[in-house]
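Human: Here is a favour to ask of a fellow structure person. Comparing notes only helps if you start from a blank page. Give me a protein, with the fold worked out from its sequence. Please set it down just below, with no commentary around it:

Assistant:
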Amino acid sequence: MPTPQLVQGEPAITALKRGFDQIADLLAITLGPTQGTILAKHETKTAPEIISDAATIARRLFAIPERTEDVGAMLARNLVWRQHIRAGDGCATAAVLAQAILNEGSRLVAAGHNPMVLRRGIDHAARVAMDALRAMARPAQAAELTHLAETITGDEKLSAVLAEIFSTLGADAYVSIEEYLAPYIERQYAEGGRWNGKLVSPYLITDSARRRAIIEECHIVLYDGPVQSVQAVQRMLEIVAGTQWHQVALIATAISGLALTTLVLNQQQGKIKIIAAELRERESKRQNDFADLAALTGATILSPERGRALEQLEPTDLGASPRVEADANELILVGGEGDQAAIENQVALIRARIASLPETDDASAELRFRLARLQGQIAKLLIGAHTEAERNVIRQKAEKAIRALPLALREGVVAGGGVAYLNCVPAVRALDGEQKIAGEIVARALQAPMHQLLSNAGIDAPAALIARAQQRGADFGCDVLSGDIVAMNDAGILDSVSVLREAVQTAVSGAMMALTTDTIVLHKNPQTVYEP
């Protein structure tokens, strides 16, 4: 195995910072509504990709030429991507904050300060800033969600649609994105919960135009296993025939053979209305699907593993739903007769599971979908434009807002445009003792986002403008589109507290890793990592 190359001391520190700065400088120009646009050229595509989103830019950068500098560049790349995964927005802000902290910290380390002591102090100062942000927060109303979405996306129509979705469905809403060729933005609300399932026979279809079976006021039977024999369904049919509804949806792992034939014949003879549907997820996800269906409908899950075959069904095992639909692609339940306490318990279990996972875990998105499904909070955002490049830009903006708006609903909003960070500076500068120096580092970093916003807007003498704004009150800042000093809340220029907090935390983590690194190990043939 080839011996790796070690780069230590000043050469390692200097090269790492140069690489970090290359990425941070690039991403800084995307901060704010006057952001610059990056063109990314792909080897396999004729036209360059238009990118205005910091996280997407970071993801497109796999390496820079100088290998020692590349370590710092990839550290910045990872920092930005973590901010994207956790908060959706604030990626350029996190890069600007981290670069400012690293610049100030590097200067002090070069002057002889202990980097580990600085790290402890900076961590403490960051917590003080985040506490100050929480104290400023106020609940986000519907109109403020619209303003916040527009701050994030810069797109009035897209912002109005996204704000309506989250105002209607709440912070747990699950929003998927579908692209169209026609140039419009629209939304669709999904009535009821969706499961990856299929109707097992076209003979059960009741709506021929939509190729779908629909039953209202329907009993629910859940069986986690294959259903094949007449005996397997006979007990169910007898129980349902003795009820008032004479309608049932059998949801199982597989339904075939004489069991399916029996169900179809009963449907065709008009004795009982039947939906027979199979869940199609792999085993671990299918278990979750059954659990959610049971909570929603009040049905008992039967299975060989649980010691109860379908032949042992009892009337008390039946669940119910106001409406069930199924076709070749999905199973839909609109409402359910399950005990509210059972539904709330299932929701609590899912929330706890989400809280225990890192945001980067693939399971987190699945859990959020399950949470929205149980609560009827699913929507689809339809985005269209004349070209693929335009659709990609709209999608990037929408994805940022879809992650950020729920956080604003949970923790509230503050004055935007860097004003909230400026208002944290007094609390940080109040630190004393050995934390005073670290507090000054964080204080200067908190001013960097507003300076960058003004620089991107081409506004001269930003320090003087900021001073004039602060003289008018804590809510005042600069509307960079007009260059005027305005009350940010009145102007609808807002930020999500969660996004700002996460940006501080992520920036400090990344900057401190860079600041306390003095040895770089360069392998002969390193593996290219495409995920940040």
The chain has a mean pLDDT of 88.
